């Protein structure tokens, strides 16, 4: 009798709870700002790169992902085009936003549809301060093979993206604010004069 109690209906309910918790957290990302710290690790878990900056999101389709350290880079999605401005290189690339977002970590945060349409969601569980879920892409077109999202009280606090070579990108969010009223210029980008622009717009 115990086995039937622990059987499929219970598991299905637990799975639905995990998906509901993740979707609830992602739904809060329509208009947010946050500071972030990003760490890239190689397959031996050695730190390859560390950077930090700030992010603003206005869904659907608009975001600003600005690296301020160790070098300045601006990635702006204005709803139509994706602009990447390398300040030190004096160089801008532009492409249609769908193409530019396909493999970007922020793509997951930009989704407004049910995440289970594109990912198989499973529970990892509580690890120290955060509750973690795992997302496995349903298509092999993405550069990353596994995504982990860490939640604190239905707020997205951390992400980890792993690729098929064992490299991982870890992103931790601080000072995340929801229901922000953004200024329009946050998501517009005009290339500075004299800067080389490469690519094709939307």
| Helix-strand makeup class | alpha+beta
Largest sheet: 12 strands, mixed
> In which order are the strands of the major sheet placed?
7-8-9-10-11-1-2-3-4-5-6-12
Arithmetic mean pLDDT: 88
Low-pLDDT residue intervals, each spanning 5 or more residues:
none
The overall strand count is 12
- If you compute it from the alpha carbons, what radius of gyration comes out, rounded to the nearest whole angstrom? 18 Å
Helix content: 10-25%
Strand residue content: over 45%
Q: What's the overall geometry?
A: globular
Q: Gap between N and C termini, in Å?
A: 60 Å
Elements, N to C (H/E): HHEEEEEEHHEEEEEE
**Count of helices?**
4
Walk me through this protein's architecture.
- This protein is an alpha+beta fold and 202 residues long.
- The chain is 17% helix and 49% strand.
- The protein is built from 4 helices and 12 strands.
- The chain has helices spanning 2-5, 8-27, 97-101, 106-110; strands at 31-41, 47-58, 62-69, 73-78, 81-86, 91-96, 119-127, 130-137, 144-152, 155-163, 168-177, 196-199.
- Strands 7-8-9-10-11-1-2-3-4-5-6-12 form a 12-stranded mixed β-sheet.
- A hairpin with a 2-residue loop joins strand 9 and strand 10 (155-163).
- It starts with a helix and ends with a strand.
Topology:
Elements: H1 2-5, H2 8-27, E1 31-41, E2 47-58, E3 62-69, E4 73-78, E5 81-86, E6 91-96, H3 97-101, H4 106-110, E7 119-127, E8 130-137, E9 144-152, E10 155-163, E11 168-177, E12 196-199
């Amino acid at each position: 009798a115990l086995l039937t109690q622990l059987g499929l209906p219970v598991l299905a309910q637990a799975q639905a709870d995990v998906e509901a918790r993740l979707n609830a957290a992602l739904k809060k990302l329509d208009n947010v700002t946050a500071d972030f710290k990003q760490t890239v690790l190689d397959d031996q878990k050695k730190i390859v790169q560390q950077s930090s900056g700030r992010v603003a999101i206005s869904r659907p389709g608009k975001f600003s992902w600005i690296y301020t350290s160790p070098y300045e880079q601006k990635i702006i999605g204005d709803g139509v085009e994706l602009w990447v401005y390398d300040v030190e290189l004096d160089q801008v690339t532009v492409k249609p936003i769908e193409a530019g977002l396909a493999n970007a970590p922020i793509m997951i945060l930009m989704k407004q549809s049910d995440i289970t349409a594109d990912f198989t969601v499973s529970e990892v569980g509580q690890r120290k301060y955060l509750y973690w879920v795992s997302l496995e892409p349903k298509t092999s077109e993405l550069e990353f093979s596994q995504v982990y999202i860490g939640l604190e009280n239905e707020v997205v606090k951390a992400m980890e993206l792993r690729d098929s070579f064992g490299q991982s990108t870890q992103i931790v969010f601080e000072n995340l604010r929801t229901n922000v009223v953004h200024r329009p210029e946050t998501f517009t980008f005009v290339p500075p004069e004299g800067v080389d622009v490469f690519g094709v717009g939307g």
